[in-house]
């Protein structure tokens, strides 16, 4: 098992007033050659957007873009006809494919929206752009990981154009679960949303991240009440 740890306070930071963002991997003006990606996981941004503010219309292509609201509501509009509100408890993916433009704004004017913006390199390039959004409120489980994203259209959660699986776990102190790798050769990036956990005898706290590869499984134990996002991804593009 090989691991790399990214503590929360070592992330790149950008404060634009209306947007306060922390970058686990190199993004925009933050460039760290040792933090370009974890396999096909290219971007992991922890964003806070002020009330009524947001990202104006801009283009993407050949990238799987996942948004996971942690607090508040995010309004999405795109060039393929979608006008959606993504709420806490939802997961959204936009497969940019041959090209799409979109905007994302805080739906509310009186409170922040906090969300994760995640980019993954696609398995196949230049496909038709596609949008998918699901609620995970009714599928969540206590003290075990549940799937919110996969490569398969008929599976639980959203699906993307890549051999990747995302799981979320919500654990009370002292509980643990073992996650088994779905595809040989894949790695897992664990991102601690809340609380404190122990992975591979290392303690991780809120917004810490750990990349794990060369293993068939990992065990996550909550040393405090915790919420964790696991992102299993191919390690080669």
TrEMBL record:
One Pfam family linked to the record: Pirin
Keyword ATP-binding in record: no
Keyword terms of this UniProt record: Iron, Metal-binding
The protein's required cofactors: Fe cation
Quercetin 2,3-dioxygenase C-terminal cupin domain mapped to chain residues: 148-233
Organism in which the protein naturally occurs: Arcticibacterium luteifluviistationis
GO MF: metal ion binding
Top-level taxon in the UniProt lineage: Bacteria
Positions that bind Fe cation: 58, 60, 102, 104
Protein name: Pirin family protein
Entry similarity comment: Belongs to the pirin family.
Residue ranges constituting the Pirin N-terminal domain according to the UniProt record: 11-120
Cofactor comment text: Binds 1 Fe cation per subunit.
Lineage: Bacteria, Pseudomonadati, Bacteroidota, Cytophagia, Cytophagales
């Amino acid at each position: 098992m090989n691991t790399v740890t990214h503590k929360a306070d070592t992330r790149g930071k950008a404060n634009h007033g209306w947007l306060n963002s922390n970058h686990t991997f190199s993004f925009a003006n933050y460039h760290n050659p040792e933090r370009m990606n974890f396999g096909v996981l290219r971007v992991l941004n922890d964003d806070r957007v002020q009330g009524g503010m947001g990202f104006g219309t801009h283009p993407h292509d050949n990238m799987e873009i996942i948004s996971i609201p942690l607090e508040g509501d995010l309004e999405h509009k795109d060039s393929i006809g979608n006008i959606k509100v993504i709420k806490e408890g939802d997961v959204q993916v936009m497969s940019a494919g041959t090209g799409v433009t979109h905007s994302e704004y805080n739906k509310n004017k009186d409170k922040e929206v906090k969300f994760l913006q995640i980019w993954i390199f696609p398995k196949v390039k230049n496909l038709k752009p596609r949008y998918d959004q699901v609620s995970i409120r009714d599928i969540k489980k206590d003290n075990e990981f549940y799937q919110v994203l996969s490569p398969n259209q008929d599976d639980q959660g959203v699906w993307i154009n890549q051999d990747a699986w995302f799981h979320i776990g919500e654990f009370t102190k002292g509980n643990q679960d073992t996650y088994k790798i779905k595809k040989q050769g894949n790695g897992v990036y664990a991102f601690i949303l809340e609380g404190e956990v122990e992975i591979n005898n290392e303690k991780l706290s809120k917004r810490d991240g750990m990349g794990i590869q060369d293993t068939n499984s990992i065990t996550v134990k909550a040393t405090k009440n915790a919420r964790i996002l696991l992102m299993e991804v191919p390690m080669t593009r």
